[in-house]
Write a structure and sequence with these properties.
alpha+beta, two-stranded antiparallel ribbon, single chain
Length: 78
């Protein structure tokens, strides 16, 4: 399926994802997307996995927080 829609870049370099695209991909408010440059084209994809949840109720050390962030970035980057 190919859906092609023109969008305008705002003065803050933002774009709106048209409803046709959002609906086709099932994008909802709060979803995380990845964006990359591939052969001169911008590719935006919906992330298939959710970000890890951090259990509340206990204090985390700086090292634990950094490890969680590092693991999350590695997962997102594939």
């Amino acid at each position: 399926m190919v859906i092609e829609v023109r969008v305008k870049v705002t003065r803050h370099y933002q774009i709106t994802i048209p409803s046709e695209i959002r609906n086709a991909l099932g994008i909802r408010e709060g979803d995380v997307l990845t964006m990359r440059l591939e052969d001169g084209k911008i590719v935006i994809e919906k992330c298939s996995d959710e970000l890890p949840k951090i259990r509340l109720g206990r204090r985390l050390s700086v090292e634990e927080i950094e490890k969680i962030i590092e693991e999350s970035v590695e997962e997102m980057m594939g």
